[in-house]
Amino acid sequence: MAWLRDGCAVLVAAALGTTAAAAVPTAGAASEIAGYKKLSLAQLMEVEVTSVSRRPEALADAASAVQVVTGEDIRRAGAQSLPEALRLLSNLEVAQIDSRQWAIASRGFNNTSTNKLLVQLDGRTLYTPLFAGVFWDVQDTLMEDIDRVEAISGPGATQWGSNAVNGVINITTKNARDTQGGLLTGSAGTVRAVAAARYGGTIAPGVYYRVYGKHTERDSSVTAAGPETGDAWRMSQGGFRLDWERGATNDHVTFQGDAYQGTFGQSANRDVEAEGANLLARWGRTFGPKSTLTVQAYFDYTHRIIPGSIAERLGIFDLDIQHRLPVGDRYDLVWGGSFRTMDDRVINPATLAFLPPHVERDWYSVFVQGERALLEDRLRLTAGVKMEHNPYTGAEWQPNVRAMWKMSDRQRLWGAVSRAMRTPSRIDRELFAPAAPPFAIAGGPNFKSEELLAYEIGYRIEPRAGLALSLATFYHKYDDLRSLEPGPVPGAPSMIANGIIGKSYGAELSAEYRVRSGWRLRMGYTEMRVSSVTKPGGLDRTSTRSQVLDPDRMALLNSQFDLSERVSADLTARYMGRIANQNVPAYAELDVRFGWRPTEALELSVTGRNLLDAQHAEFGAALPTRREIERSVNASFTWRY
Amino acid sequence: MAVLNYTPGRAADPRRLSVKWAAGFWLLLALVCPPPLPAQESSTKEYQIKAVFLFNFIQFTAWPDTAFPDATAPIRIGLLGTAPFGDALQAAVQGEKIGSRPVTIERLAGLQEAAGCHLVFVGKSEANDIPAIISALAGRPVLTVGDMPDFARRGGMINFYLDGQKVRFEINRAATLRSNLRLGSQLLGLARLVGPQVSAGED
User: Fold this and answer.
1) Are A384 and A371 in contact (CB under 8 A)?
2) The pTM is what?
C-alpha cells in the first residue's frame, strides 16, 4: 500500500499546491494537559472535544451568540425532522407553513424563502443559489445519526461566507465510529409514518462505515375551515458515511453521500417531484494542539419539478480549505479559501422565468482571521476579514472584530462588530414575469448585495455548578434590502432593486440548568423588534411591511426528566408572539414524549406534538387557504443490535 | 425556444463538462486516497480530557488502607485494552502526589495483572469481556473505569460517554460500595448515576 499512499500524497499535495505532507507535528500534550488540570471537574465537562467551527473552542468562550443541541436532546424531544430539531434552539424562528414547507430564520426577516441564513449539514451548504433559501422538504438525514446542531444567531460571514448574515446553522452527523451495529426504527402516528434502518461496521482497524435508508410519509395539513389541503408527501432517502482515522487521529478522512427522491402534493396542480444526491470528501490533519488543516470537497445535485411553476436541475461543486496555526505564543491564525461552481438549468413556465434559463457561475473566496490572547489569556481579541467574489457584484469584503473577556472563571463578556453581505442569487437578478416580453417584471440588472452592519454584546455566567445563563443583545442595521421598483414610465416593467433599509434590535436569553442527576432544563427567551422602510424616493411595490414577518418575542422551555433509569418523560413548551403583518395569532404549544427502555437494545416511545390546540397557524397571510398544523401523536420503537 | 427542448431526465451532454468540473472530480478522488502517515502520534483532545478525568477520579476516591502495602505505596493505574492516551496520561500524573502517594501507570497484558492496581481503565476493545473483568475484580478495591456503552450498567464503576462533543461520565454507585471504595460528592454530583439505587446513608 505504500506506493498508493505515497502516490496519493503527491496528488493531494499537488492538488493543494502545498507540501502539507511535509509539515512537522508540534510537541506533545503536556502544555494542553496542564491547562485542563487547572479546570474544575464541572468546567472539564464543558470542554468540547472537537468542533465543527472554524476555531475549536469551549462554547462558553465563544464571542458570538451560539446555542447547541445534541443528538441526545433531539432524540429526547422526539424530533423526526430537521426543522423540528431546530425548534429546540431558542435563537431561531421556526414556523411550519404546511406539511412540507418551513420558514426558518434568526433575528428576523423570516419568510418562505428566508435568504439571510446559512445552513450546512456536515459542511455542505443547503441553501439553493436559485433564491438563497432552503428547500426544507428535501433536507433530511437519519435523526439518530445527528451528533449536534449548532445555531449561531448574528453574522458569521467572516468565517462562513455570504448568506451568513443573520445566522448560521451547522448540523453535524456522528462519526461512523460511533454508529456501529444495527438500528431499526419505526414510527406511526396521526400525521406521519417513518421507517428507517442503519448498519455500521468496521472495514479495517480505524476504518468505520455506516449505511442507512429511510422512508417518510406525511399526511396533508389543514386549513382553518378544516378540510385537508392535498399536500401529503412521501420521501425516501439513503446514504452512507465512512470515517478513517489514522494513528491517534492525526489524520481523519471522511467520505459520505446521500440520495433521495420525494413526491409532494399540491392542492391545485400535479405533485412536486424532487430528487437529489450528494457526495462529500473531507480530509483533516492535526499537526498539534492548535494546528490543523482541513480540505473538503463535495458535489451536490438537485432536481425539482414543480408543476405550474419551474423545473430546476442544479449541480454544485464546492471546495473548501482551511488552515489553523499558532504564530508565536500569543497569536492564533486561521486562514482559508473556497471555490464553488454551479450549473443551473431552469425550465420556465409561461408565467415567470429565470433568464437566461441555463447558467454556469463561479464563486471564490479567501479569509483570514487572527486571535490574540492578552492579560494572561483573560482577554481575547479576534479580527478577520473575508473577501468573497461572486459573479454578480464582484468582490465583497466582510470583516469582523470580536473580543471576549474572562471576567472570572464563571463569567464572560463578549462583543462584536461585523459587516455581512447577502450577495445576489438568481432570483434577485434573473427573475422575469411573464416568461416572454412584454415583461411586467424584468429582473434586477442593477441589484447589488444587501448589507448588514451588526453590533453585538453578550454575557455568560455560571452562577453555580450545573446552571449556565447566556444573554446576547444585538443591533442590526441593514442597507440595500431587496425591493421591486416600478419602471420609469407607465407601462415599463418593474425591476428588482435595493430600495429598502431596515434595522432590528433585541436580546436573546438562554439558560441550561441541571436541577439534579436525571433532570435537566433548557430555557430560552428572545425579545426583538424588526422594521424596514423604503429609502427616500423609493417606490417599492412589494409592501415594505412584507419584509417583516417576525414575532416580537419567542420563548422555549425544554425539560428532560428521568423517571427511572429506563423511563423518561420529556416536554418541550414553546411560545411564539403574533406575526402582526400576517395576522398570525400568538400561540403556545406543548410537545410531550414518554420513553421506555425495557431492555438495553429496545426503546419504545410515545410522542404528542402541538398538544394545546387541535390546529393552529404558524405562518402565512390570513387567507382562507392558509395552512394550519394539527395536534399529532405517534408511537415509535428503536431497536439496536 | 431552445429551453423547451430541454427535457428533465435527459443526461447532460458530456461535452459540457468543462475543465473545472473534471478537475473537481479528480480532486475528490485524490481526497479519498490514504493520506501519508503522520510522523509522530499524539493523543486526541478527547483522550487528553479523559486523562485529566482519570487524574481527578483518583483525587476524589478513597481506597481502604488494606489496598496499599504501606503508607507511601503508589496509586497504580492499569490500562487494559485500547487506551489511546499517547503521553497525555503520563503528563497528567507526572510529579503529582495524592497525599504521600505517587501515581504510576502500567500497561496490562491481561486481566491477571489487574488485581494489584487501584484503578483499571478498560478500553473499547474489551467490550466483549466485561463480565469476565467485572467478576475477576469483584469485591477487590479496584476502581474500574470503562470507555464503552453500558460498562457501568453491567457492573463497572465509572464509565465515560460523550454528550455531543463533551466528555461525561456515569457512576454505578452500588458497584463502588461493594468494593469499599468511597467516591467524593464532587464526582457523584456531576455524574449520571446508573445501576441499582443506593440510599443516601450508605456511604
Assistant:
1) no
2) 0.75
Distance of alpha carbon A153 from alpha carbon A111, whole angstroms: 16
Please, which residues 130-189 of chain B have a Cβ atom closer than 8 Å to chain A? 150, 153, 162-168, 186-187, 189
Helix (H, G, I), strand (E, B) or coil at B50: helix
Strand partners, B144: B120
With a CB cutoff of 8 Å and minimum separation 6, the contacts of A496 are A428, A429, A431, A441, A443, A444, A447, A482, A483, A484, A485
The beta strands (E) that lie in A164-290 are given as: 167-173, 181-189, 192-204, 207-218, 222-223, 233-246, 251-264, 272-288
A310 neighbors A354 (Cβ within 8 angstroms): yes
User: Can you tell me the distance from the alpha carbon of A127 to that of A139, in angstroms, rounded to the nearest whole number?
Assistant: 10
Around Cβ A14, how many Cβ atoms within 10 Å? 11
- Hey, what's the torsion of the CAs at A138, A524, A508, A384, to 10 degrees? -60
C-alpha gyration radius of chain A: 24
Q: Nearest residue of B to residue A207 by CA position?
A: B34
- The residue assigned the cell 453581505 is A421
Please provide the size of chain B in residues. 203
Segment A314-338, tens digit of pLDDT: 999 999 999 988 887 778 899 999 9
* Integer angstrom CA distances of residue A412 from A55, A60, A508, B147: 18, 8, 16, 33
Q: How confident is the model at residue A251 (pLDDT cuts 50, 70, 90)?
A: confident
**Residue numbers in B near A34 (CB within 8 A):** 91
Contact list, B194 vs chain A (CB under 8 Å): 565
Q: Which of B28, B165, B168 sits opposite A297 (nearest CB)?
A: B28
Q: Report the residue from A8, A39, A282 with minimal CB separation from B30.
A: A8
For B:38-97, CB contacts with A below 8 A are: 38-49, 51-53, 55-56, 60, 84, 86-88, 91-92, 94
- Whether residue A148 lies within 8 A of chain B, CB to CB, comes out as yes
Task: Using a CB–CB cutoff of 8 Å, tell me whether A181 touches chain B.
Answer: no
Q: CA of A532 to nearest chain B CA: how many angstroms apart?
A: 38
pLDDT digits (tens, 9 = 90+) for A130-160: 988 999 999 999 999 998 899 999 998 788 8
Using a CB–CB cutoff of 8 Å, tell me whether A38 touches chain B.
no
User: Which of B165, B170, B171, B186 is the mutation pick for testing A, counting most A CBs within 10 A?
Assistant: B165
Does the CB of A15 have a partner CB in chain B at under 8 Å?
yes
What are the residues facing A104 on neighbouring strands? A94
Amino acid at A235: M
Three cell numbers, residue A146:
445527528
For residue A258, give Cα distances in angstroms to A21, A144, A198.
Answer: 30, 15, 13
Residue B126 distance to chain A (closest CA, Å): 15
Pairwise CA distance, residues A282 & B137, whole Å: 43
Cα dihedral sign, B140-B146-B148-B153: positive
The model's pLDDT over A524-583, given as tens digits with 9 standing for 90+, comes to: 999 999 999 889 888 887 765 556 899 999 999 999 999 988 899 999 999 999 998 888
Count of beta carbons in the 10 Å neighbourhood of residue A580: 13
Bridge partners of A476? A454, A504
Q: Which of B20, B92, B162 sits opposite A37 (nearest CB)?
A: B92
Euclidean distance between the first and the last CA atom of chain A, given in angstroms as a whole number:
34
Q: Hey, what amino acid is at A170?
A: N
